[in-house]
Amino acid sequence: MTRSMYKWCAATAVALLLAGCGESPTGDSTTGSAALTKEQVGLTLPDGEAMTGWKQSFQPTAVEMDELYRSQACPVNDNAGCENSRFFGAAAFQRENPAASVTFQIVAYDSEEAAQEAYDVLWDGYYGNQVGLTGQKAKTLELGPIGDEHDARLGTSGFHGEPGAVTQTRVGTTLLWTMEKAAHKGDIDEDGIRDLVSMLAKRSQQAQNGNEPSAALNG
């Protein structure tokens, strides 16, 4: 895997590894928008068991939102978009064939309204601009019926035109991100992006319904 592929999750990983590690999953469901606890955020993040075909880069980690983590999750305009946020979580994985890396992030808010208000601030102000970095225009992806609202872009993420994809999804009181990088053109496919987004969204919904998240890539 190329060195540039690891840079995507480096900022998140460095900050989160300073804190303790989260735990892992199991559960089911369909409606509800409860504010999540720190433990539920940790459980919402996929672990190695949920990520068939991928290897964990570091254990899913959830922390209380503070100045450090606001700078990680909401890094522009004086941390705009992190108002009324409670917890931050991240997990990272890598795959050998084809070579790719993916980082999952969650920001848990104290209400659905707070998550709604943060959505455009963070997508327009930061996350939506994280692909297409070598001057090639990023492609907007249609994800289908996932979450309450979502956006996705596929483009380039490195100096040599390596492919990258970023997605942002709101599920109730949470904002969710998948950030994927690959070594070669064609090593990220649209169906694979949708599978990652759908799994994370289902896990967040299960947690907000009061169940242990169980959604996995293979089902």
From TrEMBL:
Q: Which domain of life is it from?
A: Bacteria
In its UniProt entry, what is this protein called? Uncharacterized protein
Q: Which organism is it from?
A: Streptomyces coelicoflavus
